Amino acid sequence: MALSQPRQAASLAADLVSDITRNERDLSGKAFRIALLAGIITAFVVLVVLIVDVINVGSPVLSERLGDLLSSTLGSKPETSGLSQALRGSFYIGVFVLLVAVPLGVSAAIFLEEYARQGRLTRFIDINIRNLAGVPSVVYGILGLTVFVQALRAFTGPDSNGRSVISAGLTLSILVLPIIIITSAEAIRAVPNGIREAGYGVGATRWEVVKSHVLPYAAPGILTGTVLALARALGEAAPLILVGATTGFLTSGSSYLPSSLQERFTALPIVISTWSGRPGEDWRASTAAAIVIMLAVVLVANAGAILLRNHYEKKR
Amino acid sequence: MTSDQLPELAKGSFRMHTSASPPEVSTVSNATDEVFKVADLKVFYGQFLAVRDVNLTVQAREITAFIGPSGCGKTTVLRCFNRMNDLIEIARVEGSLNYRGIDLYGPAVNATEVRRRIGMVFQKPNPFPKSIYENLAFGPRLNGVKKKNDLDDIVESSLKRAALWDEVKDRLKSSAMGLSGGQQQRLCIARCVAVKPDVILMDEPCSALDPIATARIEDLMQELKQDYAIVIVTHNMQQAARVSDRTAFFTTEVNPEGDRRTGVLVEYNPTEKVFSKPDDTRTEQYVTGRFG
Amino acid sequence: MFFAAAMTSVIISALIVWSLARETWTFVTQVEVAALWTDGWFPRRGMYDVKTIVVGSALITGIALAVAIPIGLAAAIFLAEYARPRVRRVLKPVLEILAGIPSVVLGFFALTFISPQIVQRFTDASQFNMLAAGMAVGVLTIPLIASVSEDAMRSVPDSLREASYGLGARKVQTTLRVVIPAAVSGLVAALIIAVSRAIGETMVVFVAAGATGGSLYSTNILGPGQTMTAAIASQAAGTDQVVGEGLTFQSLFFVAMLLFVITMFLNLVADRFVRRVRQSY
């Protein structure tokens, strides 16, 4: 190398200075960064525009007749229609998810992570669950229609042809089950092995270790998954169309108390979907108002879950 | 060093931040033989002082070894030499670090260009998950070499330089991930050589390798030092004794203000001296295996 | 007990196949082949032109990906490679919130905002049109593409980035020539999952693309259209019984089966790609 020749050293050193202090204007780097920023800002703008738009459109209804909207029943006129039955339906769907899907999903996760030996069967179950998580929701609607509405009609509601909140709740429980299993399994997997070994070290049985060491440690993660699943269930409309949610009129009263879980029902996203199709500014405003109410529930639940997760992630 | 001495040292260490561009070029003879001249170097991670009191010079056509117990800051100092520490957001450097007479942390210095002249080989072999050829061609392409013939030449000569050509010449298009650990590390050295650097920094290059692969890399280092200045961080004292011309011994000292330990350069001397009659008793204790 | 819980997932899969298979079989064995290749999808009139709804799904998916890939990928690269931890902590939840918006809301948004404010401003599209619906489906898939791609890029070990910087590469070169090629299986997985999601999306199309009574075969994205999912939903909506000529009810199961098979295939392929990323690092 030329470096070994002292005579050239001075010029070489000067070259070196100009070389490593060369102030390249990194234009492609700048352009790339700007393009990336544009992408993420677009996503952000869409979110803001969407939320501002529905609040804007819905604001007359929300400010003038919020109480009326929450307490009235479905109707044919926008100025008298309300969401009481829809809120009731959505509430019971949420209850079903909590009582059916959560225990089932968490148990499955415990089995897969703590009890099952790694083998063909668990691999199969694992792939199966991942696949179920990607099945379109409308297909779950078909499942609900065949199994709960038709096959189990005697149980889900003989008088309503099985088109009851039981069918809806069970269908959506099945829909969110994979979400709960996957998030719970991840939370359980994240429990350090030291915690389990500490439990076994003092002679605890497997169930005792799971109950008093693993589950408490994994609880925030499981709770996050539960809240996300709940939010998903409350926003789903497609499966409910198939299990026969009522879109027009519902004769049952406006009371929030259940007269019977076997009766015909409706739910918030179904009402939104139906009202979206109705013509005129008034319906549009009512729809937007209903959306604001649903988003308030769903987004607060989501945001809560995200904050909860971030909080515990940071602590560990 | 006591805590009230620290501010004194800090005062003198602002030079690099205030030096005007273009930096001064030091004398001719120094520019050829003295590759790095480090004075009162300190590295901080946030508020934490990771290493201090680093004073040493690195000569061309020599191997300089950094040894010392873990956490003593030897890798941290090495990563200053090609400004890899820039990638760690909270890292901050004080003191002066001259590369061939240029203040490496001077305001006009382009860290990317620095890294093209001062190459680095890492602890774990890290070939790109691409073909052997693409691994070698990556650096030259960054420098604007586009012609296939030129790239072919560089790939071949670099692989020969790293004593890998005979083993891989028939499978240049197959994935580099299929090579053995030792081959991967020699590939990384070849990849480094392919950008025609002036200095090669090696961060524990043999710690993930078996003894035979290690011996090959050590032989290779002796070959390479004909053309390059090499700085190597190693955990292995025997390795430092075997391969290096000069050795810097780092150790850790408890901070006056807290329980975290700060690295400090204890001694920098010709390797022979460090391992036979070191100036500092701490060095002696370390090289004779009494701590570390 | 826990084993039983785990097996429910298998039982669910079996139930899905069982519910779909019976009526699909009835449909396939009884339908006249000519009815499967007609001018449009009007199941109540015995016209089961499958290409109408398959092409409709393809168009919607194509539009959705044209929106979601650039935005989702840009967001993913920014979050994985460029954003400082603090910025990331703020931006990532924004995407997650976007992911949490129910699709029926995006249907409303497509119909009352995207269609009149964007699509109709630049074209002479009808109020119900596939372009607006497709764009809204795209919005739904942005978070999906972003999060799967980001995971893939973050699983690329830092040692590769260091190797690249050590050779004097700049950030953009490191990202484009090292990180993205190393994460390519994950990015392919993101793409496939997005396709699967877009094909399976129901409510946006149901609300915003019109043609709820059925649709003539059409490739005009400025007009109304029908997808496989919306075809299922619109037959079931608003009626106590699915009524119509002979096989109307069964046709719905046939379409659902088609949908199930397509999305399952895509999901399995995507899963394979995701696994490949995990294995290599």
Task: Give the full name of the CATH homologous superfamily of the domain at 87-267 in chain A.
Answer: MetI-like
Q: The CATH topology of chain C is what?
A: MetI-like fold
Q: Count up the helices of chain C.
A: 11
Outline the biggest β-sheet of chain A: none
Whole-number total of structural domains of chain C: 1
Mean pLDDT of chain A: 86
The geometry of chain C reads as globular
β-strand number of chain C? 3
**For this structure, what is the CATH homologous superfamily of chain C?**
MetI-like
Backbone CA Rg of chain C: 22 Å
Oligomer: heterotrimer
Features:
heterotrimer, B: alpha/beta, Rossmann fold, 10-stranded mixed sheet, 10 strands, globular, C: 281 residues, mainly alpha, 3 strands, 2% strand
Structure description:
- The complex is a heterotrimer of chains A (316), B (292) and C (281).
- Chain A has 316 residues and is an all-alpha fold.
- Chain A has a domain at 87-267: MetI-like fold.
- Chain A is 74% helix and 0% strand.
- Chain A has helices at residues 9-20, 27-71, 84-115, 120-133, 137-151, 153-156, 165-189, 193-201, 206-235, 238-242, 268-276, 281-315.
- In chain A, α4 (120-133) packs across α7, α5 packs across α7 (165-189) and α9 (206-235) packs antiparallel against α12 (281-315).
- Chain A starts with 8 loop residues before the first helix and ends with a helix.
- The model of chain A is unreliable at 1-9 (pLDDT under 50).
- Chain B is 37% helix and 25% strand.
- Chain B has helices spanning 6-12, 15-18, 28-33, 74-81, 111-117, 132-142, 148-161, 165-168, 181-193, 211-224, 237-243, 271-276, 281-287, and strands spanning 34-45, 48-59, 63-67, 91-99, 102-103, 118-121, 199-203, 229-233, 246-254, 261-270.
- Chain B has a ten-stranded mixed sheet, sandwiched between helices.
- In chain B, α6 (132-142) runs parallel beside α9 (181-193) and α9 runs parallel beside α10 (211-224).
- The two termini of chain B are 21 Å apart.
- Residues 1-31 of chain B have low confidence and may be disordered.
- Chain C is mostly helical and 281 residues long.
- Chain C has one domain: MetI-like (MetI-like fold), CATH 1.10.3720.
- In chain C, 74% of the residues lie in helices and 2% in strands.
- Chain C is built from eleven helices and three strands, in the order αββααααααααβαα.
- Chain C has helices spanning 2-30, 50-82, 85-99, 103-122, 130-154, 158-166, 171-182, 184-200, 203-208, 228-236, 248-280; strands at residues 40-42, 47-48, 215-216.
- A three-stranded antiparallel sheet of chain C has the order 2-1-3.
- In chain C, β1 (40-42) and β2 (47-48) form a beta hairpin.
- The longest helix of chain C is centred in the first third of the chain and has 33 residues, at 50-82.
- Chain C is globular, with a radius of gyration of 22 Å.
- The model of chain C has no long low-confidence stretch (mean pLDDT 89).
- Classes of the chains: A mainly alpha (316), B alpha/beta (292), C mainly alpha (281).
- Chains in contact: A-B, A-C, B-C.
- Chain A binds chain B through residues 1, 3-4, 6, 9-10, 12-14, 16-24, and chain B through 21-23, 25-26, 28-29, 31-32, 60-61, 99-102, 106, 108-110, 112-114, 117, 198, 227.
